[in-house]
Amino acid sequence: MLIIECPFCGPRNETEFHYGGQAHVAYPEDPYALSDKEWAEYLFYRENPKGEYAERWSHSAGCRKWFNAIRDTRTYEISATYKAGESRPTSTSAGA
Ligand SMILES: [Zn+2]
Question: Could you write out the DSSP letters of every residue in 23-57?
Answer without folding.
Answer: S--PPPS-GGGS-HHHHHHHHH-----SSEEEEEE
